[in-house]
């Protein structure tokens, strides 16, 4: 009886610690203990005790007391998430290379390594061995700086099952890999997942790192500020392949098997070009990186997946080259059609366009948004927004690190 009671108390304490961390992560500014008590519904005594534990273990830090003296009692001391103690490791294997990033709870990138590589016809064993070495270098740096590693994620451009199988990653030419057999996966107790879903996680404010006040008046920063931690949005990840994720009230909807959100394989023309998935007219065959480069007549076949080719496409499009303009127009038609279908299906009014499309002209989102608003069935009520990603550079890598950090946030007591 005694041991059962103490286990439950530990669970409760860990849960309450988790609630406090989550509250601070999502808060737009530091919070006093009194404020935390009000927001979480925990008593002031509980908050004081738990805040003491979080301070002791380097999860939070105290800022200078607020200068304005309250009418009664002591001035309050704001608490915020601390940098320097706990880190998650994100790993990614993509069509343009592989790499590793360590991220702490305060949102600071502690270390990162990326290896650009030609990933055509690669051997999975070889790439996992190379990624293992890259990760070990990052882990050494974390140890030197006194960080505790709390978990790690691995983003892959394909279908990943709950039981660690990579069913297929067509743009790498890999299929039916038992991910659990790799030393890297075993050593780090890695959580593998689909890259688009991990990239979507990185876009959720306060998901696993402190929300940073975003400075700069660039359009990207302004648009990004419109998203809150509990918003719903559809994320589209664009590369050679196109992936996607539906985020509902701050949670990625994965479906019954973990495969939900494959927007790249929504067909817009049953008589359209053949897709690598076996269907015809998929979004990927119009708006994927390879498809666009080929349609614009810049390169064909293997040469079309060279990242330099899409830079050439961008230059030609800006210069008004008719084939480039036509290819982009057709891709935009397909994008608008799939966005509208996704909004009709999921009843989510915000779409975030990530990947290489996010580097296109800044007016693109406004153009997409205008066209989209005419294609939504519930257009009287849903006013679609098309946003650029908050995290545009390697978002899946960051999301994978956040998957690791969530282990800690969900059960902090397990690490103390
Ligand atoms: Zn397809």
UniProtKB/TrEMBL annotation:
<dbReference type="Pfam" id="PF09339">
    <property type="entry name" value="HTH_IclR"/>
</dbReference>
<dbReference type="InterPro" id="IPR000600">
    <property type="entry name" value="ROK"/>
</dbReference>
<dbReference type="InterPro" id="IPR005471">
    <property type="entry name" value="Tscrpt_reg_IclR_N"/>
</dbReference>
<dbReference type="InterPro" id="IPR043129">
    <property type="entry name" value="ATPase_NBD"/>
</dbReference>
<feature type="domain" description="HTH iclR-type">
    <location>
        <begin position="20"/>
        <end position="62"/>
    </location>
</feature>
<dbReference type="Pfam" id="PF00480">
    <property type="entry name" value="ROK"/>
</dbReference>
<comment type="similarity">
    <text>Belongs to the ROK (NagC/XylR) family.</text>
</comment>
<dbReference type="InterPro" id="IPR036390">
    <property type="entry name" value="WH_DNA-bd_sf"/>
</dbReference>
<protein>
    <submittedName>
        <fullName>NagC family transcriptional regulator</fullName>
    </submittedName>
</protein>
<dbReference type="InterPro" id="IPR036388">
    <property type="entry name" value="WH-like_DNA-bd_sf"/>
</dbReference>
